[in-house]
């Protein structure tokens, strides 16, 4: 007996589901670069929500229990807060990020690596991307204990997961473009010890030629664009086409020009099929002074929502204002490109309680370097970044 033609309604529902799915996973063309949505499908409904907006809720169930501990071989000592016996590690890892209108699924390392089989993920940028990478490696290792350190192709740090033939690695390029130290010429008498020459139109060698090795790339820069790193005795001097840019650019103008050039390099040189992400600034939480002025972050719990603007809005001129300022520039530069934004700033702004602070694993580190209120304890907040990033990759492949 031939099957009866079904009525149209179920088809329509199915079609709209499909449309919704395609739309929210960015397979259909659309005009923005934001990829803040994730699709959660149940048998009865499909919804999408902004993963970057929400709140931290205290949750002492095992759902917040970290997937790794101090024994992960990919740790960097200064961020290995269990080993360094940081106080409050239990509490730090009892907060769960709750996006406003949905649940953020925790990564399933086995399932994720299976999805990534025969593919590679590359991180490019500064130590905040390295911090992110270490969390990612320690989490993925749960599904493949035979994971090995991997430092080929100019990678600074990384791992190969043999069970799945997946490489995840970090390429250090703090300004993204090429820069090098040039000592003072004897004829110059301008009070400088030398300059850091930045070639705004040349990407750093650490990543320029490796982009086609990766199926997913995640860029960042921002934390080195400050006068504390490059004071006027040893400033950044910007060059284009081999010539100094005149009149000389300040740091912030230099950042804009470098971003413009790096984004256009990525658009031009990185294969179209590569998934490209750009993560926004990780906020710092120095309280009472800069890092070199006894700035401190000995907090026991996250900031409250109403405190965030006081800390971070540039108009309040606080110690940590640069994150949002730099974000504005990055967002502007990414308009109209196929690079997606990973806006981890807001959720991280809350977490004044989750930096290594004075627990750095070395006796004199605080006396020399001050507290670390910039990087993050591991396990900790970057594990939530991993949940979000892996979820977005999952929805896009
Ligand atoms: C592993 O993955 C790479 C791509 O990253 C691929 O070229 C290679 O053939 C894969 N090896 C095996 C054994 O599947
Ligand atoms: C930082 O603290 C030390 C010890 O308490 C003190 O001697 C020093 O003057 C402080 N520095 C600043 C910049 O406040």
From TrEMBL:
Record-level GO cellular component terms: Golgi apparatus; membrane
Keywords assigned: Membrane, Signal, Signal-anchor, Transmembrane, Transmembrane helix
Protein localization: Membrane
A molecular function (GO) term: O-acetyltransferase activity
Annotated InterPro entries: TBL, TBL_C, TBL_N
Record family assignment: Belongs to the PC-esterase family. TBL subfamily.
Matching PANTHER family: PROTEIN TRICHOME BIREFRINGENCE-LIKE 12 (PTHR32285:SF23), PROTEIN TRICHOME BIREFRINGENCE-LIKE 9-RELATED (PTHR32285)
Record's protein name: Protein trichome birefringence-like 12 isoform X1
Annotated organism of origin: Populus euphratica
Lineage summary: Eukaryota, Viridiplantae, Streptophyta, Embryophyta, Tracheophyta
Gene that this sequence comes from: LOC105129741
């Amino acid at each position: 007996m031939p099957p009866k033609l079904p009525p149209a309604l179920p088809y329509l529902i199915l079609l709209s589901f499909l449309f919704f799915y395609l739309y929210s996973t960015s397979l259909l063309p659309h005009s923005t670069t934001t990829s803040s949505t994730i699709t959660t499908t149940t048998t009865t409904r499909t919804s999408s929500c902004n993963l970057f907006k929400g709140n931290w809720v205290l949750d002492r169930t095992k759902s917040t229990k970290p997937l790794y501990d101090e024994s992960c071989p990919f740790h960097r000592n200064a961020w290995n807060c269990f080993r360094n016996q940081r106080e409050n590690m239990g509490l730090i890892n009892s907060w769960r990020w709750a996006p406003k209108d949905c649940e953020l699924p925790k990564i399933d390392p086995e399932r994720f690596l299976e999805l990534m089989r025969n593919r590679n993920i590359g991180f490019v940028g500064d130590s905040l991307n390295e911090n992110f990478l270490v969390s990612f490696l320690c989490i993925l290792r749960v599904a493949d204990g035979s994971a090995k350190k991997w430092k080929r192709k100019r990678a600074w740090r990384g791992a190969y997961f043999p069970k799945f033939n997946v490489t995840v690695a970090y390429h250090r390029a703090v300004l993204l473009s090429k820069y090098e130290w040039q000592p003072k010429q004897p004829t110059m008498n301008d009070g400088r010890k030398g300059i850091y020459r930045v070639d705004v139109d040349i990407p750093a060698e650490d990543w320029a030629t490796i982009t086609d090795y990766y199926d997913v790339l995640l860029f960042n820069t921002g934390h080195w664009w400050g006068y504390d790193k490059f004071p006027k005795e040893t400033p950044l001097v910007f060059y284009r086409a081999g010539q100094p840019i005149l009149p000389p650019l300040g740091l912030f103008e230099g950042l804009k020009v470098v971003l413009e050039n790096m984004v256009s390099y990525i658009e031009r040189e990185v294969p179209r099929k590569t998934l490209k992400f750009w993560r926004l600034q990780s906020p710092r939480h120095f309280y009472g002074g800069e890092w070199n002025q006894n700035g401190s972050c000995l907090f026991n719990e996250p900031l409250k929502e109403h405190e965030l603007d006081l800390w971070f809005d540039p108009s309040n001129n606080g110690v940590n204002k640069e994150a949002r300022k730099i974000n504005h520039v990055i967002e502007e530069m990414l308009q109209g490109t196929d690079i997606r934004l990973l806006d981890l700033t807001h959720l991280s702004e809350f977490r004044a309680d989750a930096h290594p602070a004075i627990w750095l694993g070395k006796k004199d580190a605080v006396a020399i370097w001050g507290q670390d209120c910039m990087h993050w304890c591991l396990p900790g907040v970057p594990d939530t970044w991993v949940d979000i990033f892996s979820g977005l990759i999952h929805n896009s492949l």
